[in-house]
């Protein structure tokens, strides 16, 4: 990505953080959390940071305008110490439901693969072997649309039902979020659950996904059971850094947004997660499938020059790396 | 009380007994009994087991904290583990014969959320936050009937039989005793110091028999398990591996004695390959950087969770970790040769 595109994204990210209230990042136990950031210019993770308050964190985000911001699901005695010396005290139970883990027909429409050897390309998920040269190595490009976000939401709703009905977790302890890109996060804050180790969390993962299900121990067949597709690694990792609630996603410019559990089925991520609601930006777009932001649908684009787009749409394409700023 | 010397009311009772450290006769009996407790763990010091245990309740009860003091002083992981296991097993056998009241009381001491249940064959429902940490410990972790996915779970409550609740408590008690041996001790009387030395010496003599032999035989590539073959295949084709997949492959190969250089080379086909980065990661996992101890390959059950276990074969049913796959495979290979 050319430098001025980076620059522009950074400026807008910084501005967004500036508009937030002092209490934008009211995390429980904020002083005991570890924070991490990915910067636009250097693709490295800045880790082991800690903040005393929402205000301090906000100030940091304004001045650094990172591409991605994370906080630890865990709370520590010494959040800034190296991994082995942190003093783990517990961790929220976190689930990640990502369209990547759910096969949807829409990826035929908006995802793309390119053979690393011969450059053959087609829509959809990559095949096992390149039909042209038989090579098995591909670059892929994924996109989002209402369909894959909807199927991620369906899994999320199923997961919440399992958590409530089977695990007895109370609604008040569950928070659901649009991740800002391709899925949803569920955070559970409960002292008893928070103390569970990785092995115990693995059992929760297996329960939710039906891994290790043996017929002889059940009255109901497996297909009568409610299951949800989740990322297995995220839930088991008790030191995991999770995208910060209220921060911007570096691949979309969308906010990681809290979704009300009551009306989750009506929650529209492509509306609720918009950070930039004013102004326009002129960009050149190389290639992009159709996409929606709020009530407006854009594209598809192919080598379009000097296109004036609303800020949110332009930033989305810039973050996706398929557009450049016109000076 | 004699049966459950870890309960808080017992601690209080000991304080009230006012055992006189200066009364050597009394202290000696307690220490002797403590020695028997530990020795029973190892079936060594056989002559000591023949000693008639003190019938006096005070001595029996006080011997438990003293035994813990001794084990703490010896500071050996295996000794601690075995000692805790034998005490926990003893409690388990008592619990099986107890009424609800006692079982519930002990569970409550460990802050369990537990209720009696009338839904036979179950006798209790236990909160999953108490069930899980214990059902994933010791032998239980390998048994399908203990897996949460195979249990009746409703509103956070796991249904368990009386026998099962006792078994879960056994794990809880074992962990509790292990935890107590981690407490800092300030000053130990000479007589206990002597016992610590005595036990340490006895134990060291036997330790080589107690530790399992390290597995030195390394696998040939033709003996790698299906999951590893699959990852290897994808890597040589230059396909992208997830973090968990890379971790699995690298730790496995390293444990089988494949050099870091060769492992780094394997990844050279992957599209985002960067030699320096890959070398750093491989050496980190191999324990050559900072962390020292090499990482162990995940168990099969974890690999199943992450979807890395593919096409398991009949040998797979007999193992718990891919690292031991080739050891089971060997006999058939030898047979083929003959
Ligand atoms: S059972 Fe274990 S060794 Fe066999 S394929 Fe699965 S993970 Fe690999
Ligand atoms: Zn090709
Ligand atoms: Zn889609």
Overview of this protein structure:
The complex is a heterodimer of chains A (327) and B (338). In chain A, a hairpin with a 2-residue loop joins strand 15 (291-293) and strand 16 (296-298). The longest helix of chain A is centred in the middle third of the chain and has 20 residues, at 146-165. Chain A has helices at residues 3-19, 54-64, 107-110, 146-165, 191-194, 198-209, 232-236, 269-272, 311-320; strands spanning 35-38, 45-49, 68-72, 74-76, 88-91, 93-98, 112-115, 121-123, 138-141, 174-178, 183-188, 241-243, 257-259, 280-288, 291-293, 296-298, 301-310, 323-325. Chain A has a 4-stranded antiparallel sheet with strand order 2-1-3-12, with no helix packed on it. Chain A starts with a helix and ends with a strand. By secondary structure, chain A is of the alpha+beta class. Chain B folds into 3 domains: 1-74 and 184-214, no CATH class; 97-182, no CATH class; 221-337, no CATH class. Chain B is 56% helix and 4% strand. Bound molecules: iron/sulfur cluster and zinc ion (2 copies). The site of iron/sulfur cluster has 10 residues of chain B, from helix 10 and helix 14.
Largest interface, and how many residues on either side? A-B, 33 and 38 residues
Strand share of the residues of chain A? 25-35%
Helix content of chain B: 55-70%
| H-E order of chain B | HHHHHHEEHEEHHHHHHHH
Side by side, the strands of the main sheet of chain A go: 2-1-3-12
Q: What characterizes the major β-sheet of chain B?
A: 4 strands, antiparallel
Number of DSSP helical runs of chain A: 9
Order of helices and strands of chain A: HEEHEEEEHEEEHEEHHHEEHEEEEHE
Total beta-strand segments of chain B: 4
Low-confidence stretches of chain A: none
Structural class per helix/strand content of chain A?
Answer: alpha+beta
Q: Indicate the percent of residues in helices of chain A.
A: 25-40%
N-to-C span of chain A = 14 Å
Radius of gyration of chain A: 21 Å
Mean pLDDT of chain A: 93
Query: Could you tell me the number of beta strands of chain A?
Result: 18
Overall pLDDT level of chain B: 83
What is the beta-strand fraction of chain B? Answer: under 5%
Helix-and-strand structural type of chain B: mainly alpha
Distance from first to last alpha carbon of chain B: 62 Å
Bulk shape of chain A: globular
């Amino acid at each position: 990505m050319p430098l001025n595109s980076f620059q522009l994204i950074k400026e807008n990210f910084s501005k967004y953080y500036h508009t937030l209230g002092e209490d934008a990042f009211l995390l429980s136990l904020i002083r005991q959390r570890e924070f991490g950031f990915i910067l636009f210019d250097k693709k490295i993770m800045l880790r082991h940071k800690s903040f005393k308050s929402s205000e301090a964190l906000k100030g940091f985000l304004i001045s650094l305008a990172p591409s991605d911001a994370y906080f630890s699901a865990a709370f520590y005695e010494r959040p800034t110490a190296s991994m082995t010396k942190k003093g783990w005290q517990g961790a929220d139970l976190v689930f990640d439901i990502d369209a990547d883990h759910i096969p949807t027909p829409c990826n035929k429409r908006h995802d793309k693969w390119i053979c690393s050897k011969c450059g053959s390309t087609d829509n959809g998920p990559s095949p096992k072997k390149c039909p042209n040269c038989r090579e098995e190595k591909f670059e892929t490009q994924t996109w989002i649309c209402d369909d894959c976000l909807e199927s991620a939401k369906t899994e999320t709703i199923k997961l919440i039902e399992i958590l409530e009905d089977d695990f007895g977790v109370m609604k008040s302890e569950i928070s659901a979020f649009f991740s800002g890109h391709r899925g949803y996060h569920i955070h559970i804050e409960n002292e008893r659950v928070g103390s569970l180790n990785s092995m115990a969390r693995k059992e929760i993962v297996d329960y939710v996904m039906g891994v290790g299900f043996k017929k002889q121990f059940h009255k109901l067949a497996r297909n009568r059971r409610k299951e949800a597709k989740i990322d297995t690694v995220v839930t088991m990792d008790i030191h995991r850094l999770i995208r910060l609630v209220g921060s911007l996603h570096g691949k979309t410019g969308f906010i990681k947004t809290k979704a009300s559990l009551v009306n989750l089925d009506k929650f529209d991520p492509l509306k609720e997660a918009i950070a930039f609601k004013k102004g326009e930006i002129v960009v050149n777009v190389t290639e992009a499938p159709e996409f929606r932001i709020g009530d407006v649908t854009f594209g598809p684009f192919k080598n379009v020059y000097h296109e004036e787009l609303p800020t949110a749409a332009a930033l989305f394409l810039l973050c996706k790396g398929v557009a450049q700023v016109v000076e | 009380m004699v049966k459950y010397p870890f309960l808080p009311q017992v601690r209080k009772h000991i304080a009230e007994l006012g055992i006189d450290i200066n009364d050597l006769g009394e202290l000696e009996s307690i220490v002797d009994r403590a020695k028997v407790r530990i020795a029973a763990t190892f079936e060594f010091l056989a002559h000591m087991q023949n000693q008639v245990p003190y019938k006096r309740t005070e001595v029996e009860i006080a011997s438990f904290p003293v035994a813990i003091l001794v084990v703490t002083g010896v500071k050996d992981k295996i000794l601690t583990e075995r000692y805790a296991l034998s005490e926990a097993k003893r409690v388990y056998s008592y619990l099986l014969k107890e009424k609800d009241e006692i079982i519930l009381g002990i569970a409550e001491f460990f802050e369990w959320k537990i209720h009696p249940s009338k839904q036979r064959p179950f006798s209790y429902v236990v909160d999953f936050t108490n069930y899980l940490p214990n059902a994933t410990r010791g032998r239980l972790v390998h048994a399908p009937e203990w897996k949460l996915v195979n249990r009746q779970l409703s509103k956070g409550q796991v249904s368990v039989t009386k026998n099962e609740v006792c078994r879960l408590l056994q794990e809880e008690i074992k962990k509790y005793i292990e935890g107590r041996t981690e407490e800092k001790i300030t000053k130990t009387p000479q007589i206990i110091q002597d016992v610590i030395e005595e036990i340490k010496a006895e134990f060291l003599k036997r330790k080589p028999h107690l530790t399992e032999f390290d597995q030195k035989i390394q696998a040939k590539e033709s003996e790698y398990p299906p999951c590893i073959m699959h990852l290897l295949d994808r890597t040589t084709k230059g396909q992208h591996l997830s973090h968990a997949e890379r971790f699995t492959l690298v730790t496995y190969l390293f444990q089988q004695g494949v050099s870091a250089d060769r492992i780094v080379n394997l990844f050279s086909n992957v599209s985002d390959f960067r030699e320096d980065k890959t070398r750093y990661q491989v050496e980190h996992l191999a324990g050559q950087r900072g962390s020292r101890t090499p990482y162990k390959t995940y168990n099969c059950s974890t690999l199943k969770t992450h979807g890395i276990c593919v096409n398991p074969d009949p040998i797979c049913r007999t193992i718990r970790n891919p690292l031991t796959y080739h050891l089971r495979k060997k006999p058939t290979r030898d047979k083929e040769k003959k």
